[in-house]
Amino acid sequence: ARELEQLRRAAGRGAHVPPRDHFPDHKPDGMDRLTGLPDRDALVRALLGALASGVGPQRRAAVVLLDIDRFRNVNRSFGRARSNVVLQVFARRLAHAAAQSRGAVSTGAGTSTAMAARLGGDRFALLLTGLDDSVDLPALVEQVRRKLAEDYIFGDGSRVHLTASIGVALAPDDAKDAVGLLDCAELAMEEAAEVGDGIVRFHGDACRTWTDRHVRLAGCLAGAVERGELSVHYQPIVEASGGRIVAAEALLRWTSPELGAVSPAEFVPIAEERGLMERIGSWVLDETCRLMSSWRADGMPPLRMSVNVSIGQLIRTDFADTVRAIVERHGVPPPALELEISERGVLRDDPLVRQQLAAVRALGCRLAIDDFGTGNSGVAYLKRFPLTTLKIDRSIVSGVLRSEEDAAITTAITAMARQLQLTVVAEGVETEGQRRFLAICGCDELQGFLFSRPVDASALRELVLARAAHEPVPR
Question: What is the reported pTM?
Answer without folding.
Answer: 0.63
